[in-house]
Design brief:
This protein is of the alpha+beta class and 472 residues long. The chain has helices at 3-59, 67-75, 121-127, 174-221, 234-281, 287-318, 331-341, 343-348, 367-384, 441-451; strands at 81-83, 86-88, 94-99, 104-107, 133-137, 146-156, 159-169, 327-330, 352-356, 362-365, 390-398, 401-409, 455-461, 464-471. The radius of gyration is 50 Å and the shape is rod-shaped. 18% of the residues are buried.
């Protein structure tokens, strides 16, 4: 299972358990919290009523005054209120008064007058000077029918002479409890959803970052030219930097070993020729023969110098992971400059050059490398083009790329050699001299083309050889 999915599953499990625990805890506290607030309000109301009714209760005139009518009218009121979006169309308080023996003397509902309430906790505890409250079901079989009762003492010179009880059914609080639970549940689910979305984004970002590093490591292992991923700070940037440093050190060591071996191998032949000529020159010989051996030393020295320069250029390109700059380079101008540099060679061999490149056709890349690559292609074509032969250069735009073609009249390349032309140190004999080149020119061209994100293709066509290069 991918690391990102595992990370997300662990994160989702944590968010789910945390959300469930918090929501469950809060939901369980809503109902008691609402009832506690209601009970506190009932305490205030009961004590207020105890003070209001005290004088009439002492005088024994509760039923003779307007209190029964007032409480009845109170019970019939319709507030038409809207509390936090919920309608309230009736009052829910019940008020009754008991004497010092617990006998009901006044009841707003009018059903309990004369009954003995001395055993109910709201009356029993209040008459004893304690806090009296109870919650009793009006229907023993219905849990939702419980009614909260809170009593307050009626005092006369510090002596408790009666009790005022204010009652409120819990069912009147249920709409507010339900509304709060629904809103809390919606907010909780929304927050959990946002948390999971954030976790998914974080997992995707982490997986993407690791995939980029993995692709980079796989590309390096496969020998492809890939750029190291860039991150803004943190452990991922440190990891990417460490991987890049490791790649540089490992590749550098292997690269040096390979090039030392290659250079040693390729320099053996010219060094042997120079040493042999030098040994022969130490003895007596005719001037003409001496001049021939001096020429051999000069040509082999030039060959060694060219080999070293080509190797240095190739090493510089191969070690790069990307271009140092990208600018628009006019292809027509660049080709004309390269042809001008080879003008003497073209005229001496009386070559026919045909060019069809639009003036506004642009390449996008590093000018120095593009000049070297196209220059190598031109030199290679000139080496194999016979006297009075044809050299044809053309280019066209295809989508977001430029197709550059270089045709030179020549003998067909053998089939066995075609797939090896851009191989390092592989070269075919030149028609004029029969000697081979360093075998690094086309390899250098291929590396430059790949560095620019293009392709190189060499094929036989009617009458000669054609090189096709696709570049941005």
């Amino acid at each position: 299972m991918p690391l990102g999915i595992r990370f997300f599953l662990v994160y989702a499990l944590f968010i789910g358990l945390t959300g469930y625990f918090v929501l469950n805890t809060v939901m369980q506290e809503i109902r008691p919290g609402v009832r506690q607030s209601t009970e506190e309000t009932l305490v205030d109301t009961a004590n207020l009523m105890a003070e209001i009714l005290r004088d009439d209760f002492k005088a024994g005139t509760l039923n003779q005054n307007r209190w029964p009518q007032l409480l009845k009218a109170y019970g019939e009121r319709q507030p038409a209120a809207k509390i936090w979006g919920l309608p309230k169309n009736q009052v829910n308080h019940r008020i009754y008064v008991t004497d010092a023996k617990g006998i009901v003397v006044l009841d707003s509902s009018g059903v309990a007058v004369g009954q003995d309430y001395s055993r109910w906790n709201d009356v029993y505890l209040t008459l004893r000077g304690e806090y009296g409250a109870r919650s009793t079901r009006s229907d023993p079989n219905d849990q939702g029918s419980s009614v909260m009762h809170v009593g307050a003492p009626i005092r006369d010179n510090g002596q408790i002479i009666g009790v005022v009880t204010v009652a409120k059914p819990n069912s009147s609080l249920q709409p507010y409890v339900d509304r709060t639970e629904r809103r809390l549940l919606a907010y909780g689910v929304g927050l959990i959803g946002l948390g999971l979305l954030f976790g998914a984004l974080l997992s995707w970002w982490l997986s993407r970052a690791l995939r980029r590093l993995t692709a980079y490591a796989q590309g390096v292992s496969a020998g492809r030219r890939v750029e190291v991923p860039h991150y803004r700070g943190g452990e991922l940037e440190q990891l990417a930097t460490a991987v890049e440093q490791m790649r540089t050190q490992l590749e550098g060591k292997a690269y040096v070993e390979r090039y030392v071996h290659t250079l040693t191998h390729e320099l053996k032949s010219p060094l042997a020729a120079i040493r042999g000529a030098a040994e022969l020159l130490q003895g007596e010989m005719p001037p003409i023969q001496r001049q021939r051996f001096v020429g051999n030393i000069d040509s082999e020295s030039a060959r060694m110098q060219q080999l070293i320069e080509r190797l240095l250029n190739l090493a510089q390109v191969e070690q790069r992971q990307g271009l140092e700059e990208r600018v628009d380079v006019p292809l027509g101008t660049l080709v004309r400059e390269l042809l001008s540099a080879q003008a003497a060679r073209i005229e001496s061999r009386q070559l026919q050059v045909e060019q069809s490149i639009a003036a506004d056709l642009m390449l996008n890349g590093e000018p120095f490398l593009l000049r070297q690559a196209l220059g190598n292609l031109l030199e290679n074509a000139l080496d194999f083009t016979p006297a009075r032969g044809v050299l044809r250069l053309g280019a066209r735009r295809i989508g977001d790329q430029v197709e550059f073609k270089l045709f030179n009249q020549a003998e067909a390349i053998p089939d066995y050699a075609l797939p090896r032309l851009s191989e390092r140190f592989y070269s075919l004999p030149r028609p004029d001299s029969g000697r081979k080149s360093t075998g690094l020119g086309l390899n250098f061209v291929e590396e430059v083309v790949k560095l620019h994100g293009g392709t190189l293709n060499i094929r036989n066509v009617d009458g000669g050889v054609e090189v096709i290069v696709h570049l941005p």
